[in-house]
Amino acid sequence: MFTGAHVILYSHDAEADRAFIRDVLGFPYVDAGHGWLIFKLPPAEVAVHPSEGPPRDELYLMCDDVRAVVAGLASQGVEVVREPADQGWGVLAAVRMPSGAELPLYEPRHPVAHSLDSD
Protein backbone atom coordinates (compact mmCIF):
# COMPACT_ATOMS: atom_id res chain seq x y z
CA MET A 1 0.00 0.00 0.00
CA PHE A 2 1.25 3.47 -0.81
CA THR A 3 1.70 5.79 2.15
CA GLY A 4 2.16 9.12 0.37
CA ALA A 5 3.68 10.94 -2.57
CA HIS A 6 6.95 12.87 -2.65
CA VAL A 7 6.98 15.86 -5.01
CA ILE A 8 10.32 17.36 -6.10
CA LEU A 9 10.63 20.89 -7.42
CA TYR A 10 13.93 21.54 -9.18
CA SER A 11 15.08 25.13 -8.67
CA HIS A 12 17.84 27.50 -9.74
CA ASP A 13 17.73 28.91 -6.18
CA ALA A 14 16.57 26.07 -3.94
CA GLU A 15 17.46 27.86 -0.70
CA ALA A 16 15.33 30.92 -1.57
CA ASP A 17 12.42 28.77 -2.77
CA ARG A 18 12.58 26.69 0.41
CA ALA A 19 12.44 29.90 2.47
CA PHE A 20 9.45 31.09 0.38
CA ILE A 21 7.55 27.84 0.99
CA ARG A 22 8.44 27.93 4.70
CA ASP A 23 8.00 31.64 5.47
CA VAL A 24 5.48 32.95 2.92
CA LEU A 25 3.32 29.91 2.22
CA GLY A 26 3.72 28.69 5.81
CA PHE A 27 4.01 24.97 5.09
CA PRO A 28 5.21 22.86 8.03
CA TYR A 29 8.48 21.02 7.41
CA VAL A 30 11.16 18.70 8.69
CA ASP A 31 14.85 19.36 8.27
CA ALA A 32 16.41 16.25 6.74
CA GLY A 33 19.82 17.69 7.56
CA HIS A 34 21.96 20.67 6.55
CA GLY A 35 18.91 22.87 5.83
CA TRP A 36 17.39 20.34 3.43
CA LEU A 37 13.74 21.07 4.18
CA ILE A 38 10.95 18.67 3.26
CA PHE A 39 7.49 20.19 3.46
CA LYS A 40 4.17 18.71 4.47
CA LEU A 41 1.69 19.30 1.68
CA PRO A 42 -2.07 19.60 1.87
CA PRO A 43 -4.04 16.56 0.71
CA ALA A 44 -3.20 15.76 -2.90
CA GLU A 45 -4.59 14.14 -6.00
CA VAL A 46 -3.13 13.21 -9.38
CA ALA A 47 -4.63 13.58 -12.85
CA VAL A 48 -3.37 12.34 -16.20
CA HIS A 49 -3.94 14.65 -19.16
CA PRO A 50 -3.27 13.93 -22.84
CA SER A 51 -0.27 15.66 -24.39
CA GLU A 52 0.85 16.31 -27.95
CA GLY A 53 4.39 17.09 -26.77
CA PRO A 54 6.78 15.25 -24.49
CA PRO A 55 5.49 14.11 -21.10
CA ARG A 56 5.81 16.69 -18.33
CA ASP A 57 4.79 17.19 -14.73
CA GLU A 58 3.07 20.16 -13.09
CA LEU A 59 2.30 21.09 -9.50
CA TYR A 60 -0.73 23.24 -8.67
CA LEU A 61 -1.60 24.32 -5.15
CA MET A 62 -5.36 24.04 -4.70
CA CYS A 63 -7.39 26.48 -2.64
CA ASP A 64 -11.02 27.24 -1.87
CA ASP A 65 -10.76 30.93 -2.82
CA VAL A 66 -7.87 31.59 -5.18
CA ARG A 67 -8.67 35.30 -5.45
CA ALA A 68 -8.28 35.73 -1.68
CA VAL A 69 -5.06 33.68 -1.65
CA VAL A 70 -3.58 35.73 -4.49
CA ALA A 71 -4.55 38.99 -2.77
CA GLY A 72 -2.95 37.80 0.48
CA LEU A 73 0.28 36.79 -1.24
CA ALA A 74 0.40 40.04 -3.22
CA SER A 75 0.03 41.99 0.04
CA GLN A 76 3.20 40.21 1.23
CA GLY A 77 5.07 41.40 -1.86
CA VAL A 78 4.75 38.20 -3.88
CA GLU A 79 4.63 38.87 -7.63
CA VAL A 80 1.40 37.73 -9.26
CA VAL A 81 2.28 36.54 -12.78
CA ARG A 82 -1.20 35.35 -13.74
CA GLU A 83 -4.22 37.05 -12.24
CA PRO A 84 -7.09 34.70 -11.34
CA ALA A 85 -8.98 33.73 -14.48
CA ASP A 86 -12.08 31.56 -14.75
CA GLN A 87 -11.37 28.56 -16.97
CA GLY A 88 -14.82 27.00 -16.55
CA TRP A 89 -13.43 23.93 -14.74
CA GLY A 90 -11.82 26.21 -12.16
CA VAL A 91 -10.09 29.50 -11.47
CA LEU A 92 -6.38 29.54 -12.30
CA ALA A 93 -3.66 31.98 -11.21
CA ALA A 94 0.11 31.92 -10.64
CA VAL A 95 2.69 33.65 -8.47
CA ARG A 96 6.45 33.92 -8.88
CA MET A 97 8.80 32.07 -6.54
CA PRO A 98 12.16 33.65 -5.64
CA SER A 99 13.96 31.45 -8.20
CA GLY A 100 11.79 32.92 -10.95
CA ALA A 101 9.67 29.78 -11.34
CA GLU A 102 5.90 30.17 -11.61
CA LEU A 103 3.77 28.49 -8.96
CA PRO A 104 0.24 27.86 -10.28
CA LEU A 105 -2.69 28.23 -7.89
CA TYR A 106 -6.01 26.65 -8.65
CA GLU A 107 -9.59 26.79 -7.33
CA PRO A 108 -11.33 23.71 -8.71
CA ARG A 109 -14.94 23.86 -9.87
CA HIS A 110 -15.16 20.12 -10.49
CA PRO A 111 -15.38 17.16 -8.10
CA VAL A 112 -12.08 16.65 -6.27
CA ALA A 113 -10.49 13.38 -5.22
CA HIS A 114 -8.13 14.54 -2.47
CA SER A 115 -10.64 14.01 0.33
CA LEU A 116 -12.03 10.63 -0.75
CA ASP A 117 -12.02 7.91 1.88
CA SER A 118 -9.26 5.37 1.32
CA ASP A 119 -11.42 2.36 2.26
From TrEMBL:
SUPFAM superfamilies to which the protein is assigned, alphabetical: Glyoxalase/Bleomycin resistance protein/Dihydroxybiphenyl dioxygenase
InterPro entries reported in the protein's UniProt record: Glyas_Bleomycin-R_OHBP_Dase, Glyas_Fos-R_dOase_dom, VOC_core
Name of a matching Pfam family: Glyoxalase
Superkingdom to which the source organism belongs: Bacteria
Residue span, VOC domain: 3-108
Listed name of the protein: VOC family protein
Biological classification of the source: Bacteria, Bacillati, Actinomycetota, Actinomycetes, Kitasatosporales
